[in-house]
Design a protein that fits this description.
This protein is globular. Helix content is about 0%, strand content about 55%. The protein starts with 5 loop residues before the first strand and ends with a strand. About 25% of the residues are buried. It is mostly beta strands. The strands form nine sheets. The protein has a 40-stranded antiparallel β-barrel. A hairpin with a 2-residue loop joins β62 and β63 (about 995-1005). Among the domains are: about 1-95, no CATH class; about 120-300, Immunoglobulin-like (Sandwich), CATH 2.60.40; about 305-335 and about 1075-1185, no CATH class; about 720-785, no CATH class. It comes from Litoreibacter ascidiaceicola. This is Outer membrane protein beta-barrel family protein. Keywords: Signal.
Length: about 1200
Amino acid sequence: MKMNNTLRAVLIASTSMVWGGAVTAQEADFETSCALVNGVLPANCTQDNASEVVVVPAGENNELDRGNAAVGGDGFLISIDGQPVIGDTRVEDEIRKTDIALSNADVQVKFDGLGAVPRLDLVAVDQTEAFEAGDVVTFRSRTNYPAYLSRGEVRMVDIGNAAGPKTLVVVPVQPNGSVSVAIPEGRDVVAIHRVYDARGRYNETEPLSLQGSDDRGLFTQAEEGTDATRVRGIPVSGGAITVYGKGVRAGANVRTLGETVQPDADGSFVVQRILPAGERDVEVRISGAGEDIYLQRSVEIPRSEWFGVATVDLTFGYREDAGKNTAGGAVDKYYDRGRLAFYVKGKTQKGWNITASADTGEDELSEIFRNLDKKDPRHLLLRLDSDKAYPVYGDDSTIVEDAPTSGKFYFKAEREGNFALWGNYKGQVNGSHFLRNERTLYGFQGHVQTQTTTSKGEPRAELDLYAAQPDTLPGRDVFRGTGGSVYFLQRQDLSIGSETIAIEIRDPDTGRVTSREVLVYGRDYDINYLQGVITLTRPLTGATGGGTVITDPLGENTVQLTVNYEFTPTAGTIDGYAYGGRAQFWATDNLRFGATGLVEQTDIADQTAYGADMRYEISDTTFLELEYARTEGPGFGSSYSSDGGLIVTNTNAVGGTGEAYMARGQVDLKDLNPDLNGQLGAYYEKRRAGFSTLDYQTTVDEELWGVYGEYAPTERLSYRLYYDDFTDDAGKVAREGGLEVTYKVSERLTYDFGIEHIDKVTPAGAADETGNRTDVAVRATVTVNPQLEYSVFGQATVSRSGGLARNHRVGAGVKYQFAQNWTFEGEISDGSRGVGALALLSYDNGEDGTAYFGYTLDPGRSYNGVDLSGKDRGQFVVGGTRRMSQAVDVYAENTYDLFGQHRSLTSTYGINYARSEFLRYSASVEVGRVDDRANGDFDRTALSFGVRYENQTGVTGTARLEYRRDRGVYNNTSRDGDTIALVSTLRYKIDEEQRLLFSFDGSYTDTDGSSIPDGRYAELTLGYAYRPIENDRLNVLLKYTYLHDLYGQEVDGTNDPGPRQKSHVLSLDASYDLNRNWTLGGKLGGRWSQSSPDATTAFQDNDAWLAVANARYHLTHKWDVLVEGRALRAEQAGVTEYGVLGAAYRHIGNNYKVGVGYNFGKFSDDLTDLTYDDKGMFINLIAKF
């Protein structure tokens, strides 16, 4: 039945009524007493206002009622579960009959308008191990919005291609369809699913690796609510229809929403589709295996839908004894205070999705609308600790932060990819080689894009803007890959969710970033925000790349892990602004222009950066890029570590003004002629002194350029050339060029020949870092079978001058999969610069275990911040994961580095133990040790223990204990520090009417204060709620809090420590309904505390207690009357105050109340209010929606 906007009658009991005419109520004798008897109203009871007609708004019913023809007779029908009881049978409730049929078939149909989440994913069917070139893979598309799509495709992309990611194959696939694809040849081929709408806009998934099993645990036959979307360009609105059921017989099929669904093994299925607004008939047919069920539900998906709540509370009063203010002046006897708060979420007829919220807080009316845009740290703290009022209310409610803001206001309007936002956000200014913003900020963010697109689905024009007033600082830690997976950040206690972690490959001579890959939380890494520890899912090597001629035996390009994050400094304040943006425009389908501007104005950074860029592309691998950037003033510095964070070198930001130029071009020969195989490219960069960005800190003018190319005239023969040239104003020169030839004699034997020339000048370096040299090399590679490959190589220096040492070297390497799950890779060589070695033994059964053991010895290796003293004996790494049983997962890793006298050991051990389906444990140990007789010894230990318990009887508990210990002296600086932290919560559902909550948060820090503040903190909270169901006369809320704060809370939005305190606070609220009109209530509150303004002042007692008793009279939709007595005792002041307050409120309609009251006492019911000036009359106006 489609309802009107207002509900004019209420029918109690499990019946439904369809109105065809007017019904007149008959008079009857009523019992005026309506006190509950065992939770039930007496027969024939009524209320004093029973004759009053009240109009109450009701929400729309999305079930579509197409109406019935005019009827005569009684004009109404009363039915139970769709079956007529009395009335005119021509008036039928078909919708209720459908509900019963769906229930009997164990099928449910659900509509969700505002909560619809678009999903897109790609599944490789039966992916249990790595695929190889030539294997045929079946991919299945998954999406819940096919109604918005016109086509789809699976793109096979080689992300390991030397010239950049290259699309090898594009295969069409229908959304939610399947397609089989032969894996093409490539270095690292991944699958990407892309879908398009009618306008050419597209959404795209994250790359699906084909190098191992898909460990996401997906069931490929049944639909699951997974989403792997990386690019969102298609606007999806409307509403989500979800059909789900269980108990379908094996072999039966379900057809609904226009598609056939295969239930899973236990006969369950779920299908969700987001459909455009309008009238929809949802059909469900179950057939086969002896089942034949057909059901239909009609649903109307609205074009506009809204949800919202709001309240306005205004108070005007008169103080009989105004007293004095803090300055000694008289306080105005007349006062006004108010508060406005609302939350609204919805979509308009024109497709705008709106989310907005505001909370002015209670203040004088002249002040509540001021500074709505200002950041208020207290708002964020109150949201982080949502138990500040009462920790539990007994209704099992949860909090979802749909309007994240650190201030008083949040707003977001979004339509077809365009949005404007005020609140918390993460910067998304990118697209420039030099300039980008990845900070997490509070303020304004906006994005505008055209709805017209290029032929490749890119918006024709885009504009991104942001403006913020940050109260955190950005940290940037850079780590050289250690061959391990654990890295310690320089800071602890990070802002949650603020990190951006990427893997960069750099040229070690020029600092040029040749590639950058942003990692995904949960898939690629995990982070401990309190400890500041990053754990990668796969070990990260420290070097990669290189050619036939070996300059650095383990790789010629450095691999770095870059971590950008936000943290709150332990001292000082942050004043200033951050704002900027980027605009880009595709003049044609191939030509793009862009401009970027960034401004950071804080006490420690004052920088303006801007630039312009251009890109002309024919394909992903044929393009031309030009860019100019300029920075004025210092930005933010960074830190660098070669050993995973044990030894850190800080780099300050470069001041002054600098510029940078970049030109880069590449041609894929296949774009010129499909018969040609290869590419040619060149680049040029110039960076002037003072140029400062996230990636570059330029102290002197630098210029670099280079060319490269590959060409394969036949399948057997290929050529590669390269040349790189770097110079700077300090006199440094690094030039390197070479030519390589690869000839494939047969399927088993391949020869590589190479010649390379190096020219180096290092003014501040040792004599052996200046000179020139020419080397020649040859390598023979034998592929015995797909499991075994080995090679031998040799090289010699044929020309040399200056101090550069000769580079003679011979060696051998092997890659051998000697068992189904075991692989060994190794290389050993010896030459003029010493012995080099690389070995990696790995095990992966694709199900429950991995293991690896590695050793690297890199002759000539440098160690940031440490001079080699003695002989470098290399680095060992051993680690692995193992599922010991269905209940136990363990992991471990050890990295042992022997860099001469500087020796370090980093160990990580962890276990996840599912003791039962209710109880889980997790524990980890991270240990780092440095032994260095020259610079000092250093030890770090980080322990973590967690437990989670949740059973079916209502007990849920979580706890995590963290410990970190640093000991040692490095470069004459003490690095001693201890940190202990415990976070725990326990919830107990005693029964359906009672809830109990316990929480404890504590920390102990003994540090130098550079990373986290020094002090002690503990907060214990106990909450109890009694909310009866059958007899709801009595309701009780209880809270006890113990606070031990020796840090000193931050006050007034600054980072200056506030008063220290040790306090107990107890609060008890209860109410009892005498009958339907009268309620008795009471409150007891006590505060027993000691406080101190700073660490040098002794603590002083500050105790108080408050007692409140009240009586309330409530006449529905008419009156509320309150009489309340209060008593306040301030122990140290020796003052006891008594007071009485009376107030009466009149309801006006459904949304307004007007109240008048008088307080005969001098104090309020707020223990923190110490003014004692509350005696007097007040008028209270309340509006609620």
